[in-house]
Amino acid sequence: MVGKFVQMHVLNLDFSASLTSFREDCFACMPNLKSLSLCETRIANLWTTSAALSKLPSLVELRFQNCLLCSDTGSSPVSSWNKVNEDMDSKSHRDIGLYIELPSLNGEAIPYLPSGIEYEDMNDYDANHDVRSTAEDSSDDSEFDFSGHRQDFSLMELLPDLPRGWNQLVDQQNEISFGTLDMQDEDQFSPGSSNSRHPSYIASKKYISRHPSPICYEKHYRDYMIASLPNLKVLDNLHIQKVDRETANDSFRRHFEYLPYNMNNKESVVSILQKREVRASPTRTHTSKKKFSYASRKSQHFYSRSLSAAKVGSSTWPTLRPLSVLSSISRDERRSFRPRQFEYHPSESSLMAFGTLDGEVVVVNHESEKIVSYIPSLGAMNSVLGLCWLKKYPSKLIAGSDNGSLRLYDVQSTPTISRGIYHTPVTFDEFDQLTSVHVNSIDELFLASGYSRHVALYDISSGRRLQVFADMHREHINVIKFSNHSPSLFATSSFDRDVKLWDLRQKPNRPCYTASSSRGNVMVCFSPDDHYLLVSAIDNEVKQLLAVDGRLHLDFAIASTGSSQNYTRSYYMNGRDYVISGSCDEHVVRICCARTGRRLRDVSLEGKGSGTSMFVQSLRGDPFRDFNLSILAAYIRPCSSSEIVKVNLLASSDHDKVHSNTRQPHIINGLGG
């Protein structure tokens, strides 16, 4: 919007299906805007949305859904949008509703809505239908039939990027009872009140939520918005009282990180640098050089984290940039690649290798975006699903494809031009339907797994397959990982829902231990120090286990979508400080603290047109740069190639999108990590 809208007090953007996100300064021209309605848009990101709305100093009423109070005589709005609500219901838009039963005190309506519809919590409530059952029993994406409504398009067509679980939520026409909620009026929570925890009477009131935007289905949505917008008085037609704000602030502290490393106050980079310089000045009052040295080391670590927190805090819209490696492979050919797997180099901070759907292996300088080495498929490989660099020999890497081909390449001996002369790579016995390869910490052995219940062990120096360990799981083993420091320990993750730790010194006939998930496991990886195992199961089930015995250390409690095809992958970032997680049915990467599980940020992958969201096929944290990561993003249309997107959380790009052209998400399979 261009211009000044000083006199604008009310803005209704309901049913804006093309509205996916906001610029940081998009509301700067509306200083007196008091009421904003955003029902049935495609707004989904809590962080960018609240940051944009915080620029509205006069905003007191906000809607992302239309919550109405139900009675025997009909539905009536709780807030002041009476006329707008009537207009919404009289329009030709389809009437979507979830009936919600909430408590009230002494017959009075309680102005409170639970924080989103959390799929995994549905079993705790009295619902007539299991919301997730349809998606788990079938992989088909069936659409709800809206032929009986007044409109010839569905919510899924309006909002093509909804998680598959929304299909089931939209299909629910029954009331969902949320039981009794311990809510009281403000004066009942006075410090001297003896009944501050136990109201004398609780009666149920029912609300129906109509036309919700995707943001409403985020976990703790209501608490987050109330805590982030302190001047807000009405959210989704429900008034915000003092007890609601206190509850929301407490919920925010428990479930979200305001700044990285549990920093509570935003500071400028200049201020932090000044403090660091003052601390490091030659004027010392320490009586002991040893004490000063210890304090100096400690302070450097503290200031490094403080700088990161300051930069992340000022970069709500992080920089997203596609890795552009469109280059001349030969003198008469210019082409792009279709990446399917990628890995950062373990010791060269500028290098990255990726394998393609066409069987090529490409090593690039991801800083300059120049190709360092190009290895064609030579007709021997299909999609490259497994890549692993050697550590002691940093110019070598293992590549495995889905047709079972396994090769060791030395990238220093391969040219950048496809018509050059190649040194013969080391080839290994094939492993059929391969999905994963991994080298041990001393570059002597590597393992391969795939669409079978077996694991193969190879000797790198001789090129021989040493052994095949049969029937290690009941179903196929998607990902296998050696530990980072012990050359004999490795972990396997299988779609049989088990993760197992093995020791080659014990000739793995039986695992050291077995840990189970509630769904099939997509992948597993060790933390950089081998203290933890990070396990990712289908549909956002992400847990951190103690590597020593497999006990649960942390459940990240990411909301599921209800899709049995939503393959989730998670890795560490900033050493073992943070976890990044993404799924192939969603266009968002979630960043959580690995120590507390609290959510720091969501990064959304979006295009500029309707239906252009990109979906997460794989991802990695940059091992050399804090709060940097790369995402392998893909599209639905086969003609649209997947690509690697670099994300820098320390630098702001405001509203920059990854693409300006209209594309569709690419179909993703569940193979590999």
From TrEMBL:
InterPro entries: DHU1 (IPR046377), DHU1_N (IPR048514), LRR_dom_sf (IPR032675), U2A'_phosphoprotein32A_C (IPR003603), WD40/YVTN_repeat-like_dom_sf (IPR015943), WD40_repeat_dom_sf (IPR036322), WD40_rpt (IPR001680)
Organism: Olea europaea subsp. europaea
GO terms for cellular component: Cul4-RING E3 ubiquitin ligase complex
Keywords: Repeat, WD repeat
WD repeats: 470-505
Gene Ontology process terms (BP): cellular response to UV-B
Domain U2A'/phosphoprotein 32 family A C-terminal: residue ranges: 218-236
Name under which the protein is recorded: Phosphatase 1, regulatory subunit
Pfam families: DHU1_N, WD40
PROSITE patterns per the UniProt record, alphabetical: WD_REPEATS_2, WD_REPEATS_REGION
Bilayer-spanning residue ranges: none
Superkingdom of the organism of origin: Eukaryota
